Amino acid sequence: MAAAKGGAKKPAAKSGPAKSTKKTRKLHTLYTLSGDKVQRKNRSCPKCGQGYFLGVHANRLVCGKCAYVEYVTKK
Ligand SMILES: [Zn+2]
How far is the CA of 57 from the centre of ligand 1 (A)? Predict the structure, then answer.
């Protein structure tokens, strides 16, 4: 007897694989390649060091790791 006890039936499967709603980080937009060298567009975090970049927002730069914030004032 290998029959499963009770158990609600699974809802009918939709056709095709479920689409992921997760947004990609689009890291390719954060640097440019010039020859053999990489030019990064965003500044790195002064606290965390290289490899941790500041996210660019409307009026500020924010580190996602340590929450360092640097406000940018428009001229
Ligand atoms: Zn940081």
Answer: 15
> What is the tally of structural domains in the chain?
1
Sign, Cα dihedral of 48, 51, 52, 54:
positive
How many angstroms is it from 68 CA to the middle of ligand 1? 5
What's the domain range around 71?
43-75
Residue 33 lies in a domain: no
pTM: 0.56
* Nearest-angstrom CA–CA distance, 73 and 75: 6
pLDDT band at 63 (very low <50, low <70, confident <90, very high): very high
Task: Kindly give the distance from the C-alpha atom of residue 2 to the centroid of ligand 1, in angstroms, as a whole number.
Answer: 55
Does residue 74 form part of some domain? yes
